[in-house]
Please model this.
Amino acid sequence: MLIVLNGKETQIRDGMTLADFIRDKGLEPDRIVVEHNRQIPEKEDWGRVVLKERDRLEVLRFVGGG
Amino acid sequence: MDDRLVIGGRDITSRLFIGTGKFPANRMMPDVIKNSKAQVITVALRRVDFDSDEENMLNYIPKECILMPNTSGARNAEEAVRIAKLARAAGCGNFIKIEVISDNRYLLPDNRETIKATKILVKEGFVVLPYMNPDLMDAKRLRDAGAAAVMPLGAPIGTNKGLKTRELVKILIDEIDIPVIVDAGIGKPSHACEAMELGAAAVLVNTAIATAGDPVVMAAAFAKAVEAGRKAFLSGTGAVRDYAEASSPLTGFLGA
Model:
């Protein structure tokens, strides 16, 4: 199915949770932050957030800035 | 001398705040931070690029530092609030530097939107440090909205031009009872020292260190300049005169 990941349409497996997705991408959960359909789910709830068709996901991390 | 700077209930150990953008390599950050003695460190929040193997800035910032994410990229209050909430959700504390900019040439802050965002974020429990144009009435509005400090610009971001807004910043320092932190434009240690001599509570420096020939050594130079400027301010500088006043006694000269 298709989700919109950081503004780009992206194919993912059906039935994935947010936690599955982050793990598959090889990201460390404590180093990133996620916005799911404009909501910010708690990290401990990522395993209960099941991704659905056309969901909008923003995955962010800290970079250098002033 | 008891000279504390308390922001958001935290004792701030260094009056030099540093930004982490534009450094030649992330791996030099630990040495830069160590040499600068800075405790408050700014970072930005950006989308993960899934096509490249990139590093996370958090890996290079010691745990004991206070992280101050900025809301760069926000063009209005609503976007600043969204970024601030995301930054806090990352679990790195509740300090936030509000930065609302819609002018791409000079990157000047939008005070009106900044005040709006400050009101909202203070109510949400953030420690809000807004980047602003040095306008006295707006500084008062920010203070009244609950800002923990105001951060007027010295000159446009990244220009290294120094304290071009000196007279206006001085007015804020004299009239506002929350810390005034000079942010942006500081290009060399003497500029930082000048801001501190004027009575700024702290300075925030990024480009001047990041783009120096040797950022690690420049970080140490800034640490000394900020400390010197603060001590000079606390000591009270001597009067400026139009005519000379001899430093040596004008009596007891040798006879002819």
